[in-house]
Design the sequence.
């Protein structure tokens, strides 16, 4: 009987996780995800890069334009850098919330902690798979990458 109850609970949790993207509100101006965040006091991605050149960690608000979202369930986004730099990875604290697919192209303010970290090959391949990359693109990822990573507590869509 205990096994049946455990199997039922696990099944319900798995089903709710698979349906998570269906319950995410669309990315309209003012929409909040996770902790409620105001846009006041946010720095730009360029300012974040400058601060992380001097400090190892930045805790606060950052504004940027979303250029990618996890295709599976919105478990990460990437925000653009000024110039030709690769977009910055933004994950969500404890996978406590997810982003809608229509957030790409929107400007957001996110609040959390940013630091420069090395991301392993396995993680990079996992993110590429979640982003909908094909097997050939994933296979090209053979070296870890050191870059800015942000773990956000909350996100608000600005426009």
Sequence:
């Amino acid at each position: 009987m205990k096994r049946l109850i455990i199997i039922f609970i696990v099944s319900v949790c798995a089903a709710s996780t698979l349906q998570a993207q269906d319950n995410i509100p669309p990315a309209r101006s003012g929409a909040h995800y996770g902790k409620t965040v105001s846009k006041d006091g946010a720095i730009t991605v360029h300012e974040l890069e400058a601060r992380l050149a001097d400090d190892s960690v930045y805790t606060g608000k950052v504004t940027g334009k979303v250029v990618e979202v996890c295709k599976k369930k919105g478990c990460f986004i990437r925000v653009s850098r000024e110039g030709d730099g690769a977009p910055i990875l933004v994950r969500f604290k404890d996978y406590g919330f997810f982003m809608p697919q229509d957030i790409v192209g929107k400007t957001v303010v996110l609040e959390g902690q940013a630091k420069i970290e090395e991301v392993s090959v396995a993680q990079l391949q996992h993110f590429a798979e979640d982003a909908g990359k094909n097997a050939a693109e994933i296979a090209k990822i053979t070296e870890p990458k050191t870059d800015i990573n942000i773990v956000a507590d909350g996100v608000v869509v600005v426009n």
